[in-house]
């Protein structure tokens, strides 16, 4: 991608783009090429990268998902780790995530009238 977008190095160096964003773009481009047989022109890649400048990871993911019409991943992953803890990965809707965030917020507050 550096050959097609020469200014990419400067953008990474000055912090307007992160390597993780560039990696996300490359992954999405490979997926689009595989599924849709489509490739972006260098000017289109430049425009796409410009839209990701100064964005957070989640903001970048949303931009890429909308731009390439990526379907949400819905598989549930569960892995048992060496210390016998369990790592899970699941997909929540926007509304479900808001409920989870609200529950976390409520649980993080100390209960009134209780002495710990």
Q: How many separate structural domains?
A: 2
Radius of gyration, rounded? 20 Å
Name the strands of the widest sheet in spatial order: 1-2
Number of strands: 2
Shape, please? extended
Mean pLDDT: 88
Whole-Å distance between the termini? 56 Å
Task: Give the % helix.
Answer: 40-55%
Estimated structural class: mainly alpha
What can be said about the biggest beta sheet? 2 strands, antiparallel
- Strand/helix succession: HHHHEEH
Strand % is: 5-15%
Low-confidence stretches: none
How many helices?
Answer: 5
Describe, in plain words, how this protein is organized in 3D:
The chain is mostly helical and 116 residues long. It has helices spanning 8-14, 19-36, 42-52, 57-67, 94-108, and strands at residues 77-80, 86-89. It has two domains: 8-67; 77-108, no CATH class. 53% of the residues lie in helices and 7% in strands. A two-stranded antiparallel ribbon has the order 1-2. Helix 2 (19-36) packs parallel to helix 4. The model has no long low-confidence stretch (mean pLDDT 88).
